[in-house]
Design brief:
about 375 residues, mainly alpha, about 0% strand, extended, disordered N terminus
Length: about 375
């Protein structure tokens, strides 16, 4: 038979509700321990305003606590950064000795011994003249007092306002002794803090210099393996630039100190070696260090005679031009590649943030940022 001749099939008869309920699978009833005797739970607290405000407040308190911890440990952080900077700067000298088949420990001992010797010579050159000048000033104080007492103007003022009487009361009542004792305690604290910071800096520099290769390898292992080779190349170039900058800056300071010492010795200037060391140390400060050293030496020369003062002023004026246009470009051309305007801006920002330490670190940091922009950012922007 064809499909058209087949009779239509009858639809199934509807079942009663009781039969439909019986045909459904049985659902187990909730056990009493999973029942909700206190009603239906409310909305989750993830969008609760109170919880959002509490979380935000805790985040602000955490950020404030971290900021306070950084501010409190600022001096320690500065010491660590400067020690690492000095270790990176001294590392080229260590590697140069290693290339001559010297063990790294021996090379570190020689380089670090040279650093300690410089500080010892600096102290021996500075401390005795300062001590002699202070002793001569103390011995000359009674003569200054007698000259003041012999002045008729001072005697007239004393008769009107009893100045000498008040000074005597201040001395005899112990006010002067308390002031002097407080000043001595404060000066002693400053000297002790400076000595402790210098000693800590030397120890940290020695440790960083000894473990610098392992520190570099550990930091490079934190980079993904696909980018590790390029990161190592960029990092080595940055460290070489920092080392070249430190070595070049030290060389420029040595040239300035030796030249100043020769000039002052020819003029028979008192304390020529101490003043030359002051010029060499001040010349380490970017931008203003050479000017500060020149002004200090010129003022000391003026106290000796006008002729010495004028001669020192003319000498430093000529020498700074030679250093800025001949010595500095030749020494620094292979260490840092930074535009002069960027150098000035970086030194100003570093000095404003961290003082002299910031000014010293600003130029190599600017060179590192310029290298990363030139090798990473600009090629990526060119591919977009």
């Amino acid at each position: 038979m064809s499909e058209a001749s087949q009779p239509p099939q009858a639809s199934p008869a509807p079942q009663p509700p009781q039969a439909a309920d019986a045909a459904r699978p049985a659902v187990p009833k909730a056990r009493p321990e999973f029942a909700e005797p206190y009603g239906k739970p409310g909305k989750p607290l993830t969008r609760n305003p109170f919880l959002i405000g509490l979380t935000g407040g805790l985040g602000i308190l955490t950020a404030w606590a971290l900021a306070q911890a950084l501010i409190t440990a600022r001096s320690v952080i500065v010491l660590v950064v400067v020690a690492m900077f000095l270790a990176v700067g001294l590392n080229p000298a260590v590697e140069a000795l290693q290339r001559r088949r010297m063990p790294r420990r021996g090379a570190i001992s020689i380089v670090f011994g040279g650093v300690i010797l410089f500080f010892v010579l600096f102290g021996l050159a500075i401390v005795p003249p300062v001590s002699r000048e202070a002793a001569s000033f103390v011995s000359a104080v009674p003569g200054y007092v007698r000259e003041l007492l012999a002045n008729p103007t001072l005697r007239a003022l004393d008769s009107d306002y009893q100045i000498l009487t008040r000074i005597g009361d201040y001395v005899t009542n112990g006010g002067l002794a308390q002031a002097v004792a407080g000043g001595l305690v404060g000066a002693g604290a400053v000297v002790f803090d400076t000595f402790f910071s210098g000693f800590t800096l030397l120890v940290l520099t020695l440790y960083f210099l000894g473990s610098l290769p392992s520190i570099k390898d550990y930091l490079f292992r934190l980079v993904p393996s696909s980018r590790r080779e390029r990161t190592r190349a960029l990092g080595d170039e940055i460290l070489d630039g920092i080392g070249g900058y430190v070595a070049g800056n030290l060389l420029i300071s040595v040239i300035a100190g030796v030249t100043t010492w020769v000039f002052l010795a020819v003029l028979n200037m008192p304390y020529a070696l101490a003043l030359a060391l002051v010029v060499a140390v001040a010349d380490l400060i970017p931008l203003v260090g050479a000017t500060i050293g020149a002004v200090l030496v010129t003022l000391v020369a003026l106290l000796q005679s006008w002729t010495l003062g004028v001669a020192c002023g003319v000498f430093f004026l000529i020498y700074q031009q030679i250093e800025n246009y001949l010595i500095y470009p030749r020494v620094m051309k292979r260490s840092v590649d930074v535009a002069p305007a960027v150098t000035v801006i970086a030194a100003l920002f570093g000095g404003a943030l961290m003082g002299i330490v910031g000014a010293l670190l600003a130029i190599p940091v600017a060179a590192a940022i310029a290298l990363i922009i030139r090798e990473v950012v600009l090629p990526r922007q060119a591919r977009l």
